[in-house]
Structure formats: C-alpha cells, structure tokens
Inverse folding.
C-alpha cells in the first residue's frame, strides 16, 4: 500500500539555488500536468515538447515529440480531472476562456493563499498520493474541512466574498486550480495555484494582490524601475492590492521581486482586454527554455539575474534577442510584442539564465502563466584541441550539449564527434557528459569543477606552459616556479592567458589566485613534441591515482608530510621539506601500460600528485580528490586499457563494450588502503562508446589507442534521493554507552562508570557510519531540539529551557525549521515521538504540524500525569507512565497502552508504509526514553545485562533489590537499543540503501542515575561537560568510508545545515534570512578535508527553577579550553578539558606561576571575545 503522509506546509519556503549562476529545474517538475478546471473541455489542448524523444501520454494515447514539436488533443473531455504525463518536460495551453496553464505537478503543496479580487470563486482540489484532509478558511470566517480521495478532482465553492483571502491547508501534497464566475456569467481569473512562498517574481497588472498565510507578514517589493518598498499585511484574512505602475496594460507592467518573512502568494489581475489573473512564481519554477503553445499577442519576461540574454525564435521570422539586466534585489524585464502579426504557436524562447514568463493568448486576450525547462561545462584552454575532432559522450538522457553555438542532443552513452574546436571554446550541457581527443597532448579539457585558487605543478621534463582562465571578473594570480620570486598575472574574464613557465625542471610551479580559476598544463619536449598535457585540479590533502614510471608529489608549502598507501598493502610517509622542489617516487616494479599500483595519498598541507610516462606515451595524469570520483564513465575514444582505483570496500565495476559480454570485476578498498581494477583488450581495443559503471565512486584513467597517451576521465555520480532518519534519545549523555569513550577521561575514571552495551547501535550505526565523540548540546531537551530544528542558538530563538505552558520558551512559528526547506526538495516528513517545543502560543497539541511537519504521532512533551474522558463522560486521572500515556496524533489526544518506544517505532513504520517511496522522506524520531519516569521496560527476547538483572515486572519502578533508578535507567537504554534495531531492520533494503541515519542524545545524563566519578552536580541541567556532552553517530547513504571516529567539535545546531546538505540543499545560498549558527559537517561524512569546520561550541540555559547550584548561563569551548559564565553575578569558570575533563579545577583566577599561564590567559581572552560575538 502506497500513500502520502499527512503534511502541513511550513511557514517559510525558500527557492532552491542549484548553482551560482543558473537555477536548474528537473524535467519531472514540468512533465506532468493535471486538468482540474472543467473549462478545458470547451476547446482542444495544445501540447509542445521541450525535449527530444519525449513520450507524452494523454488519455491512454502515447505521442512522441522532439523538442519544440507540437501536437493538438481535440477531445479533452475525457481528460477532465486527469493527468497528462511525459518522459521529459513539455508545456500546454488551451484556446478556451478561463483555462490558463493546467496545474503542473511541481505546484503540489500543502499551504495556499488565494486573493479574492472579484466574482464568485471556485477551487478545484486534487490529492496526488492517497487521501488528504484539507481545511479551507475564507477571510476571518469559519473553516471548512474536506476529505479528498486520491485521483478525484473536487470542486469547492468558495463564494463571492471578495477583499478576503482563501487559505487552503492540507495534510498531504495537493494541487489547486482557481477560477471565478462574474456577475455577467463570464468565467474569469483561472490559474494554477502555486504553494505560498517567501520569494517570488512576476509582472504587475491593474491589480497586484498580496495574500499572506499568517498575520503580521512583512513584504518587501523591488521593481524594475529601481524602487523598493515594504509593508505589513496585518491580517492574513485580508489581502493587499497595490498598483505599482502607471502603464500596466498589455504586459507593460513592471517586473517585481517580492520577498516576505512568512509565506505569501501574489497575483496580477486584469490587463485591459482580458479577464485573467497570473501568479507570481518562486525561483524553482523559473526556467531557461519555454515553448509557446498558443498564438500570443505579447510575452513578458522577468529576469532575476544580471547579464541575462533572451532570444525569441518565431516561425518564419528572424530571431529577436534582448538583454535583461538586473542588479541585486532589483529586477529587469524584457517584452516581446508584434503589432502586425502574432507570435505564432510553436515559437520558442531561450535564455542563458532562468527567467519568469507570461504571455497573452491572441484568441482570448487572456494572460497565462507558463512553465519551462533547463544547463555542466568543459573549457578548452589548450591550443592542441584544434588539431583534431573532439569526441563527446553523454552520461545522461536527453542531454542538450552546446558547442560553438550548435546544440547536439544525446541520450545516455550516445556519442558524437565535433570539428576541431578553437582555443577558449566552452562546451556545456544540461546533463553530465565526457569528451576526449585523439590529438597528442590534449587529455581531458578542463571541467568547471576544477576551479580553485591553489595549484601545484611538478616540472618533470620539457618546457612548461600554463593556460589560465578567470571565471569571475578580473582575477589576480601569483605564480612561483621553484624558489623564484612570484610573477603576478592579471586575468580578464573569459580570456585564455598562456603563461610560459620555462624549462627549469625538478621544481614545482605554484599558482595562487584571489578568485577561482581554471588551469591547464602542457610541455614542449626537446624533440619538439608536445607532451604532459592535463587539466590541473586544485591542490588537496587527500588524493587517489595510479602510479607510472614517475609519480611526482608537489607541495604548496614547506615541510609537508605525505603518507602513501598502495594497493599492495604498503604504507610509507615522507616530508617535502621545500615546496619549491617536488619528490619523485617509483612505488612499483611493474608500472607500464596502467599496471602501476593504486595509491591513496594524504598530506597535512595541500599537495598535487601526477603520474608521468607509461612506456609508450608522452602524457601525465593527475591524482584526484574524492569529490571528482564518480560511478558512471563513458569511453569517448578507442582505448588500449582502463585502470581504476577503488577507495571503498565492496566496489563492483562493470565495463560494457558493444557486442561483448559485460566484464565485471570486484575492487575492494579497506580503510586507508585502496584496491584497483584493470581492463585490457588484448586483441581489440576498448571501443569508443563503451561505458563503465560502479556501485561506488572510483578514479579512472585510460590510454588512447591512437596516441598511446594516458588521460584522466571524469564521470557522473549516482545520487539517489537521500532519506533521513533523525533519532533523538532523551537524557542520554556521553557517560552511558559502552561504545563511546569520553575523550581525555582517564582509564581509572572510565572504569568507575556503569555503561550500557548497545549491540544494535553498534551493528547498524557505528560500524556503518561515523562516530562523533565531541558533540555539544544544551543542558536540557527543548533548547537542543530547537537548535537542531532551526540551526540557531536559543539566545536567538528564545528557547532556553524546557517548553511548558506559559513559560514563553516555545519554538516561534516564524522560525524556519528543517521541513520548511525540505519541502522544496519534495520530501515527505513526519515527527514521531516526543515533541516538547510547543504550548498554546504556537500550535498547542498540534504544534509539530503548526511548526511545519506533515504528520505527528507521539507525546506532546514528557510522559506526565494526564486525565482522560471516557465515552460516558467520566474523567480519570493517570500517573506518568510509559505504559499508559497520552498520545497526540496530529493534535488529537488518544490514550496509548503500548510501551511508548514500541508505539513510536510502530507508528514510524506505519507512516513509512503509507509513503510514495518515489519521494524522499525525513523522520524526526524522538524517543521519550530513557527520560523519567524510570520504569522496568517490557520483557526482552534478548535482554541486556541490566535488563536481565531486574526483578520487577514491566512498569514497576525502583525497589529495594537490583531495581535501582540507575539499573532501570540503563535497562531502558538497552530496550531502546532493541527498538532502534527493530526500526532500522524493518526498513526495506532498497530504502535503507538510500537512507542516512543520525542518532544523538539531547542533553547530559540526569543526576539521579549518573555513576562512578561523575559529579551529580555536573549532570543534566548544568553547563558542565556532563550536562551538555552527548553521543552522536551518523550512518548510511550519506557516509563515505564508514567505521570512522571523529573528534571534530560539533554543536547540535550543526545538524540543521548538515541535514539540508544531505538532502541536496545548498545551505550557503538557501539559508534562512535570520542569523544561522549552523556549520555543516557533511565533509566529515564524505571523508573530504575541509577548512570550514567549527572552532568553538556554544551552549546555554536559563533555568526558571531554584536550585542549590547556579546553572543558568552560557559556555563556550574550543575543544580544549572551556569558559562558563553564570548569570548570577557574572561568575566565570575556566577549565582545561585536556587535563581536567571532569571540571574539578577551575583555573580562574589565573595563577601567574602556572607554567601554562600565558596559554591560559590567551585562551581566556579568546573565548571571552568569541562569546561576546554571540551574547554581547
């Protein structure tokens, strides 16, 4: 059974930025349209493909169209309420009045706002995946509830009350279409309704209407005349209308860029001669390519980005190109209008950057929205490419490759040849592709992914030339060869600049720039032959490659320590004392024809490694960092051999050659050691057009048959949707689990602890992931949970203590939380288990959904005493218990008699069973365990030692025997581990392979159950380490080279950015508008070195409870030194955690006689400074 989860869309949607200069829209977003409006039955439907070989299915009939081909569906009545789908993007339009664009699947959402401008309104609603519960409110009126059945278009008569906003909220993704009936009996204002969002683009008309989902929404509008203004929508039930332009007729209104602090919708209504409205769209709906399905009177374009060029291609006429220059928040517009004749259907519009587009249909004078589709690049910097044709091979289907103004469309593993390109040419495509040349000294052109600011080039032989290319404006470059003085070069954007580096060999050329650049290298030998051409990747600290006769190690800095592990199981280290000179090492006896060893190279400072000379060729290949490894490779030229390096265990590689049986090899790397695979066709070459696929990312080089030259090869990664399961344990500190040793704790102190075995966490998570031993949370649960959800410290969100009714510690609904941003990636999401972030001020019992989750099942807060009313009206009071507790399901209270952790796992699995597993999902899974009340857990089939020692029955609490609080607490942890095992083992293997699992404790262990030398006054509720130091492990799909341990300093806030990046969201460009305190540790998960790691961890608490020990305050630490500042009188304590992990020796006031006084003083000043940046 496959259904979709209950989902309430969150308060803030941020458009998805795919790359720095262009926003890519997946073809699936415009490959399905739903005809919900019955007006479509009045006329034929025009379809236009935006891709080649596009198979469009409508009403049981399949139509195959190439890009910009059209077809007409004359009988549209059977399609009412149905879907038209395709293998690629297409667009649609109708000549009938009051139709506009059918609703694209990309408009699916759970929160919509519709401004009632005029007439009598009807909404058409459609649930995509299973039943959906919808609530509709009109203005300040009452709410109407509707149950949608899947696959059935349901009309809702919203009435003729105008000046108000219709709010639609659903618990699962739905589609919405709108139209009105005017008093004259004319249908009007039909449009597909996109979900409310916080950033939109569009064009003004006579009425431009702003409708908010929430009261007190602040809206900022920047227009194409250079003006900017802000206003507040005080009451969400009413919309704001603003006429921003004197000339708003016939698409001549201004372009607008609208931002808001809460989700809104914007519509433009009335354009002199039509009876239609158009909707403003968020960035994810903008595109580079549009087809015009109907004859049009004009086209209006909004350009969010600078240097946008738009070309309209109209049948029978010359192409028209316009520039459209935006700056900052201000936008620009373009306008196409033909006074004598229409813009014919079948015309198409293309832009170099994503734009917003509307047009007016000639037949009806109705303005209509339209959706479109979208562009990977190699730069040919060497002049040697011009001597031979270039062989291209696509790694994706329907891949539009542009070279020299010519576009070629290839499907996956199709090849083509293009004439010799000129130096400086750029070849780009909508998908991944590879290329190669049989000309000598060419190798691979430079991929844009090789852009960097530090490059090291070992000078092995010949006279060297570097080809440099600046990507972003004027760039300053410094080049040093050996110990020589630096030469300064200025690069102009888009110009290839050769630099003659000379014939001094045995040295390193070091290139540094102030902005990312591309670099290519080649040499001229004494014989006059060009050689050693290769695209130069940026220097890195972890590289993979294959040895040859010469394997050269070049450092950016003096005294660089290098460690080399090879595929024969050997390991060695050496130091490059002078960066101006490189080290050459022949690490293998048999290095000819790709038979060298696979190497895994690490260094403490950035280096480059190259392999030069392979007996018969004159080429060099570069070692590459992990981010350049891939799963799918095309072989663009005939090859003599292919050599593969495998960093990860369990790697399987398949080489497919046309007419031959696939060649499958196993290639298993282990830890730092690597493995290799080798493919060699002894009698015949590995033919051009062959392809290689691996289940895990690998490094690949080949030797061209024609030139005997070794070449690097780049490919495409398999990036499955990354499901995310976030498991939170309640009241679990670092002192509890046997698998986690507290860093810097002595063996004697560790031996005093009563720790718990967790075989399931060990088996399913630690062995399959990265164990983190230096994670800091907050001293109590709600602040930690809020910090994970928002990526912000409690001093910013206001959540500084456990959330209870009336204590003003609830999570504000204005905060952007994880599901808000996951919505833009199509995630289903649920909160299972304990919430503890809401009270009546922010959603009450339905707080999780009010905050943004699509579904909630579990406890509202801790397991506390409660009352229940039975069917006879009798009220019964119940004590706090895991076995009889008040459970909330989407805000509705129930009484559960199932042990809470078991109930939570059952609900999570039930929710998963109801999902459309073609969509990614996120589960916030928060156990109540092992938080009080401390009760004997259910009988286990495989009890841990603490469970086995208990004598009481399930549900009983502390007694005089072994059933102490300490033992019961630990037995609860053991049972929780069992339930974690059941949860993970029950996820289908195919889903689990695409799932990243995070496990974390939310604060330290409670004082009543700490053991050994742990001070109870330093436990939960306190800012001492045992109050904030928690275990964490991340495992599964998002982890490379599992089984590692990281001591990197992590803050609980960092999970916010990490989860978003695991989902494919670029946090740098999609960060919420408020200050973020979250630093992604995704590089650690991917085993990629990164300089952007956390330096200081911050924790805080504001306890409203009178205690014998002052606990309220803040703390900051750098991994060794820790400063605590208490609120009471500003008292401070400083600890050296390396020497005093139990914090028994406060260093303040500092002792000037201490041998570490200077260090302590400097660290104290440093921590005070950093603390002041957070809490001035």
């Amino acid at each position: 059974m496959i259904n979709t989860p209950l989902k309430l869309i969150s308060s803030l949607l941020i458009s998805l930025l795919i790359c720095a200069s262009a926003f890519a829209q997946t073809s699936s977003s415009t490959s399905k349209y739903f005809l919900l409006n019955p007006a479509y039955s009045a006329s034929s439907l025009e379809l236009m493909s935006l891709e080649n070989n596009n198979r469009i299915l409508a009403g049981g009939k399949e139509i195959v169209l190439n890009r910009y081909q059209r077809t007409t569906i004359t009988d549209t009545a059977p399609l009412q309420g149905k879907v038209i789908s395709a293998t690629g993007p297409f667009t649609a339009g109708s000549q009938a009045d009051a139709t506009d664009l059918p609703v694209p699947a990309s408009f699916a959402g759970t929160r919509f706002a519709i401004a009632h401008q005029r007439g009598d309104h009807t909404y058409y609603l459609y649930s995509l995946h299973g039943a959906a519960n919808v609530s509709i409110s009109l203005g300040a009126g009452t709410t109407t509830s509707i149950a949608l059945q899947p696959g059935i278009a349901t009309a809702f008569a919203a009435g003729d009350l105008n000046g108000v906003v219709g709010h639609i909220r659903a618990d699962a993704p739905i589609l919405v279409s709108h139209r009105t009936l005017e008093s004259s009996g004319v249908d009007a204002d039909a449009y597909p309704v996109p979900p409310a969002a916080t950033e939109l683009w569009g064009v003004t008309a006579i009425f431009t209407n702003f409708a908010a989902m929430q009261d007190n929404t602040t809206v900022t509008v920047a227009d194409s005349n250079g003006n900017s203004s802000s206003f507040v929508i005080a009451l969400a039930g009413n919309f704001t209308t603003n006429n921003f332009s004197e000339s708003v007729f016939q698409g001549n209104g201004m372009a607008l860029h609208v931002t808001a602090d809460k989700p809104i919708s914007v519509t433009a209504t009335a354009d002199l001669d039509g009876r239609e409205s158009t909707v403003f769209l968020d960035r994810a709906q903008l595109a580079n390519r549009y087809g015009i399905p109907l004859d049009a009177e004009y086209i209006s374009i909004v350009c969010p980005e600078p240097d946008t060029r738009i070309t309209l291609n109209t049948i029978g006429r010359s192409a028209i190109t316009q520039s459209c220059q935006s700056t900052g928040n201000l936008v620009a517009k373009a306008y196409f209008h033909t006074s004598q004749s229409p813009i014919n259907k079948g015309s198409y519009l293309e832009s170099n950057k994503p734009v917003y587009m509307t047009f007016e249909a000639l037949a009806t004078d109705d303005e209509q929205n339209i959706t479109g589709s979208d562009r990977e690049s190699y730069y040919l910097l060497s002049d040697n490419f011009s001597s031979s044709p270039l062989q291209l091979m696509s790694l994706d289907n329907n891949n539009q490759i542009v070279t020299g103004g010519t576009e070629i469309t290839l499907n996956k593993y199709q090849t083509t040849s293009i004439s010799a390109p000129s130096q400086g040419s750029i070849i780009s495509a909508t998908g991944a592709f590879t290329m190669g040349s049989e000309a000598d000294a060419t190798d691979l052109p430079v991929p844009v992914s090789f852009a960097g600011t530090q490059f090291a080039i070992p000078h092995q032989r010949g006279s060297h030339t570097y080809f440099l290319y600046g990507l972003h404006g004027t760039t300053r470059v410094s080049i040093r060869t050996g110990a020589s003085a630096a030469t300064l070069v200025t690069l102009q954007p888009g110009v290839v600049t050769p630099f003659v580096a000379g014939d001094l060999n045995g040295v390193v050329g070091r290139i540094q720039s102030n902005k990312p650049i591309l670099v290519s290298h080649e040499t001229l030998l004494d014989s006059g032959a060009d050689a050693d051409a290769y695209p130069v990747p940026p220097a890195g600290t972890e590289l993979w490659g294959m040895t040859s006769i010469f394997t050269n190690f070049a450092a950016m800095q003096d005294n660089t320590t290098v460690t080399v592990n090879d595929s024969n199981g050997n390991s060695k280290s050496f130091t490059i004392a002078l960066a101006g000179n490189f080290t050459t090492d022949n690490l293998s006896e048999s290095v000819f024809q790709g038979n060298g060893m696979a190497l895994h190279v690490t260094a403490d400072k950035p280096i480059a490694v190259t392999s030069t000379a392979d007996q018969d060729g004159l080429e060099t290949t570069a070692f590459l960092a992990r981010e350049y490894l891939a799963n799918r490779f095309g072989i663009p030229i005939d090859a003599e051999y292919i050599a593969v390096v495998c960093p990860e265990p369990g790697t399987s590689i398949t080489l497919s050659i046309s007419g031959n049986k696939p060649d499958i090899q196993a290639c298993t790397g282990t830890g730092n050691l690597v493995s290799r695979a080798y493919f060699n066709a002894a009698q015949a070459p590995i033919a051009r057009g062959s392809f290689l696929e691996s289940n895990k990312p690998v490094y690949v080089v080949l030797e061209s048959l024609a030139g005997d030259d070794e070449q690097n090869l780049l490919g495409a990664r398999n990036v499955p949707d990354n499901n995310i399961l976030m498991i939170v344990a309640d009241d679990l500190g670092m002192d509890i689990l046997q698998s986690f040793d507290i860093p810097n704790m002595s063996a004697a102190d560790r031996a005093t602890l009563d720790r718990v075995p967790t075989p399931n966490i060990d088996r399913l998570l630690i062995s399959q992931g990265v164990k983190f031993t230096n994670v800091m949370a907050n001293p109590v649960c709600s602040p930690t949970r809020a910090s994970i959800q928002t990526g912000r410290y409690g001093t910013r969100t206001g959540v500084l203590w456990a959330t209870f009714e009336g204590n003003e510690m609830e999570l504000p609904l204005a905060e952007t939380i994880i599901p808000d941003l996951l919505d833009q990636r199509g995630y289903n999401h649920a909160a299972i288990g304990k919430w503890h972030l809401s009270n009546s001020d922010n959603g009450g019992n339905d707080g999780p959904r009010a905050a943004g989750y699509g579904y909630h099942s579990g406890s509202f807060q801790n397991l506390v005493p409660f009352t229940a009313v039975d069917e006879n009206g009798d009220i019964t009071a119940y004590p706090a218990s895991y076995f009889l507790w008040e459970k909330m399901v989407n805000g509705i209270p129930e009484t559960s008699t199932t042990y809470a952790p078991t109930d939570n796992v059952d609900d999570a699995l039930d929710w998963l069973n109801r999902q459309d597993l073609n969509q990614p999902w996120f589960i916030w899974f928060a156990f109540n365990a092992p938080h009080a009340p401390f009760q004997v857990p259910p009988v286990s089939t495989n009890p841990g030692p603490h469970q086995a020692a208990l004598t009481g029955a399930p549900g009983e609490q502390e007694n005089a025997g072994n059933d102490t609080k300490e033992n019961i607490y630990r037995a609860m942890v053991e049972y929780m581990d069992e339930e974690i095992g059941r949860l993970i083992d029950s996820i289908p293997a195919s889903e689990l392979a695409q799932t990243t699992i995070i496990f974390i404790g939310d604060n330290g262990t409670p004082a009543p159950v700490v053991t050994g030398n742990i001070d109870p006054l330093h436990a939960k509720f306190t800012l001492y380490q045992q109050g904030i130091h928690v275990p964490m492990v991340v495992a599964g799909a998002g982890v490379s080279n599992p089984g590692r341990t990281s001591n990197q300093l992590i803050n609980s806030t960092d999970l916010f950015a990490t989860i978003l990046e695991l989902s494919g969201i670029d946090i740098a460009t999609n960060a919420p508008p408020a200050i973020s305190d979250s630093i992604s540790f995704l590089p650690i998960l991917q085993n990629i070195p990164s300089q952007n790691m956390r330096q200081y961890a911050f924790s805080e608490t504001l306890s409203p409870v009178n205690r014998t020990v002052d606990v309220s305050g803040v703390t900051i630490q750098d991994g060794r030194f820790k400063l605590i500042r208490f609120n009471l009188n500003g008292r401070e304590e400083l600890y050296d955690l390396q020497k005093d992990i139990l914090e028994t020796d406060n260093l303040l006031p500092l002792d000037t006689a201490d041998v570490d006084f200077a260090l302590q003083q400097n660290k104290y000043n440093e921590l005070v400074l950093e603390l002041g940046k957070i809490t001035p």
